[in-house]
Write a structure and sequence with these properties.
Elements (H helix, E strand, L loop, with lengths): L2 H8 L4 E4 L3 H12 L8 E4 L7 H5 L3 E3 L2 H5 L4 E4 L6 H8 L9 E5 L5 H5 L9 E6 L9 E9 L3 H7 L3 E5 L5 H28 L4 H19 L6 H8 L5 H11 L2 H12 L2
Helix pairs in contact: 8-9, 8-12
Length: about 270
């Protein structure tokens, strides 16, 4: 898909992002990097606009007023800490057009029913929860959408240029967060550990990291092939009495698989 095709998909949407931190900023920068929106169609609100200077330089509308940012928006992404959500809703609910505006919350630990109950006036008809990860900035996010009420068509269209999108039920959101949102950190920890091992094996740190990241890219590409499965790919490189099986068994003795599973379960609580 070329740039003009991408921009035609969502160019008519007025998009507002409340919160310009790690997640909100990643949405904005990812959309711009993918050429998925015109900067003038994008508004980002944050208490301190100095964090948004690069966005402003690209033509994005930046403001410290949540209410001003929300006014006239087709879709509003709220990307703030959970304890700030009720205050943000109080700021923006009078600016929302209940039967038109799509409201999407990027947050964990708050149920859809709780979000609906935070509106003092008529709640918007279209609410969803999104859980992306920071790979949005390079269009490689795994994003989950949980419909709360009404439509979420625009929300889907917004996140599609940022990676893969999956619509799930709310009961699966904790697991999805552990696998994909927290999972970015877990993958980074593996890269860090493998790179440190590479240094012990004689490589410079930068060389080891380049080797590990390219190897992971190759593994991902192999698993993207039709019918691919991790165990099948492992079997291809584990010859009897070979080095790979020795390494795998050593990792398992140290609890590799158990550590990964327990870490995922801990972060899905």
């Amino acid at each position: 898909m070329n740039k003009s095709e991408l921009i035609n998909r969502i160019e008519r949407m007025n998009i507002t992002i409340i919160g310009g931190g790690a997640m909100g900023g990643a949405v904005a920068r990812g959309l711009l990097r993918a050429n998925a929106v015109r900067p003038s169609d994008l508004t980002v609100a944050n208490p301190h606009t100095d964090k948004l200077s690069d966005l402003a330089a690209q033509g994005v509308n930046v403001t410290t007023s949540n209410a001003d940012a929300a006014r006239g928006a087709d879709i509003i992404i709220v990307a703030v800490k959970p304890w700030m959500v009720s205050n943000v809703i109080a700021d923006i609910e009078s600016a929302i057009i209940p039967d038109r505006t799509e409201l999407c919350f990027i947050l964990a630990g708050v149920k859809g029913s709780e979000l609906e109950g935070m509106f003092s006036a008529a709640r918007p008809e279209n609410i969803s929860i999104a859980m992306p990860n920071t790979a949005m900035t390079v269009s490689k996010s795994m994003t989950f959408i949980v419909p709360v009420c009404g439509a979420h068509d625009r929300t889907l269209k917004l996140f599609e240029p940022l990676g893969k999108v999956m619509v799930i039920s709310e009961r699966l959101l904790p697991g999805a967060t552990a696998l994909a949102s927290c999972g970015i950190a877990y993958a980074m920890r593996y890269v860090r550990a493998a790179s440190e091992g590479g240094v012990e094996l004689g490589f410079r740190a930068s060389e080891a990291q380049a080797i590990v990241t390219q190897t992971l890219a190759g593994a991902v590409a192999l698993l993207s092939l039709p019918g691919a499965h991790p165990e099948t790919e492992i079997d291809k490189v584990t010859t009897p009495g070979g080095l790979t099986i020795r390494g795998l068994n050593a990792m398992e003795r140290e609890g590799f698989t158990t550590a990964v599973i327990e870490g995922l379960k801990a972060s899905a609580l």
